[in-house]
Protein 1
Amino acid sequence: FFAGVALTMSKTTLAIHGAAGRMGRRLVALGTQDAHFQVVAAIDHAACMQIGKDAGELAAVGKIGVAVSDQ
């Protein structure tokens, strides 16, 4: 509360490009661990073999409901 007013913070939405790669997977993991962030998109190149898989599972944090896409 600030002067009798409840402060609310909205989440910062994240779109991770290169989400199936080593650094992208780490960013997905970090984005799911902080309550201020929400991973909303996981993008990689069209030839990536991970297209369609859940980004959270690739990052070893469990399903987050965001599939890796090429768009």
Note: The chain has a mean pLDDT of 91.
Protein 2
Amino acid sequence: VRLCSVLKRNKALRCLKLGYSLYGMKACQALADVLREDEQLEELSLFDCHLDKEKTQVLCDAMKSNRTLRT
């Protein structure tokens, strides 16, 4: 969640790799907030994060409104 507060001010980061971590719903919602508004991030990796269906849905819904994310 702390990382997301920094990412909200992102002006340069293009690739974010958050793999091999366990995230709770609060962290997924914070990341989703970032994804909805971020205009720099092009790549996001959540490899092997063990996201359940609800967390995955939160992130996917946010990604739909992101115009810069490619992968």
Note: Residues 35 and 62 are 6 Å apart (CA to CA).
Protein 3
Amino acid sequence: RPNWSPDGTRIAFNSNKDGQSAVYVMDAGGGAPKRLANAVFSATWSSDGEWIYHGQEAPSVVRQADCNLS
């Protein structure tokens, strides 16, 4: 299930398109998704859009600034 960033400009989602479950983020308007981390559970944005929470057994985080798509 895709999760929209609070400002509506990005989408975080899980996929196994590369053969392993991982978190991806992409611009809401389209473009190539960027793989962020391996994860089994869904990615969830923080309320301020600064972090993406994901994980398997223990939650992990990725700072939104590390999601540069350019």
Note: The beta strands are 3-4, 10-15, 22-27, 34-38, 44-45, 51-55, 59-63.
Protein 4
Amino acid sequence: NINVSSNIRTSRSLLHGVMYLPNSEIRLHVLCIHFSLFKTTRAGQFSILRARILETVGTTEPVIIAGDFN
């Protein structure tokens, strides 16, 4: 659970889970994020999401991104 809140009055998080597909060595990354209502804050949260994917997900591994994108 990664905190992506811009202030203490809001709760915004990024969750990242990894699972192996059945009968396979393929890892499936599932990310869920709750973006802010405000455009400038969302841009920063998108950068955090992008950085997380670039740092932790292989270039050939599948990713599902879900959440509240406002």
Note: The radius of gyration is 13 Å.
